[in-house]
Amino acid sequence: MVVVICAIAIFAPIIAPNNPLDVNISQKFQGPSSRYWLGTDNLGRCIASRLIWGTRASILYTSFILIIMMFIGISIGLISGYFGGKIDHIFMSITNVFMGFPSAVLALAITGILGPSIKNLIIAMSSVWWTSYARIIRAMVMETKQKDFVQAAYATGCNHFQVIVKHILKNISSSIIVLATLEVGNIILAIASYSFIGLGAQPPSPEWGVMLNDGKAYIQTQPHLIFYPGICIAATVIAFNLLGEGLNGKFIGGGKYE
């Protein structure tokens, strides 16, 4: 399922039957046809094309946020867990300050200050969602650095950088992959939610949250405008969660990271 979703995202320009931004008022609220596979919305735009391009947008935005927040979390977790002492105290104090406020509230505040746009939403979410991963990775590093193979690396003359990269990071990489995969669904859902309330992607962007917002005014007469993007969000979140659980069982042996 995840492979299919990613393929749709990559080949959206080829798969989509129409331009997702083309407006044709005379064709609004049309039913499914050979030209408009799932019909048209209130502006006569092809729903199928907007859903397909919405898949591309959601995966792209999620990738940006995931890469940034995992980079911050991994960097802080590695440094804090490896060196300990004052460095650990400083980094964990900063982390605790961020964790003292609900991440959703902080993201809303940052987005409100910077202004509503998908770029600012990416900045806001990346700035506050890294904290739990910094703590988890710190714990992994503190446990791993006590292992015999790490002590053997010291004995062979490896410096700190070599030990961190070649031994510790390599050893916990499978756990990091599981963490990242499990987080994808949460990020997709959050992006759609923020876009739905006007703080993420903006109209006429073909993004699932924007489509939900556009369709809410017609929920009584055209419920499919809400149904289709809702199904896409649910299916994608479930698919990545199942993938994460599968990887968790394979790499971690059934243990679960929350």
Number of helical regions: 11
Q: What shape does the CA trace take?
A: elongated
Helix content: over 70%
The CATH architecture name reads: Orthogonal Bundle
User: Could you describe the largest sheet, including whether it forms a barrel?
Assistant: none
Class by SSE composition: mainly alpha
- CATH fold-level name: MetI-like fold
* End-to-end Cα distance: 23 Å
Transmembrane segments: 59-83, 90-114, 176-197, 225-243
Pfam family, one: BPD_transp_1
InterPro entries: ABC_transport_permease (IPR053385), BP-dependent_transpt_permease (IPR050366), MetI-like (IPR000515), MetI-like_sf (IPR035906)
Family: Belongs to the binding-protein-dependent transport system permease family. OppBC subfamily.
Q: How do the helices and strands line up, and which of them pair or pack?
A:
Elements: H1 2-10, H2 12-15, H3 47-83, H4 85-99, H5 103-114, H6 118-128, H7 131-144, H8 148-155, H9 160-196, H10 208-215, H11 224-252
Helix pairs in contact: 1-3, 3-4, 3-6, 3-7, 3-9, 4-7, 5-6, 7-9, 9-10, 9-11, 10-11
Write up what this structure looks like:
With about 260 residues, the protein is mainly alpha-helical. The protein has a single domain (about 55-250), classed as Orthogonal Bundle (MetI-like fold). Helix content is about 70%, strand content about 0%. The protein has helices at about 1-10, 10-15, 45-85, 85-100, 105-115, 120-130, 130-145, 150-155, 160-195, 210-215, 225-250. Helix 3 packs antiparallel against helix 9 and helix 7 packs antiparallel against helix 9 (about 160-195).
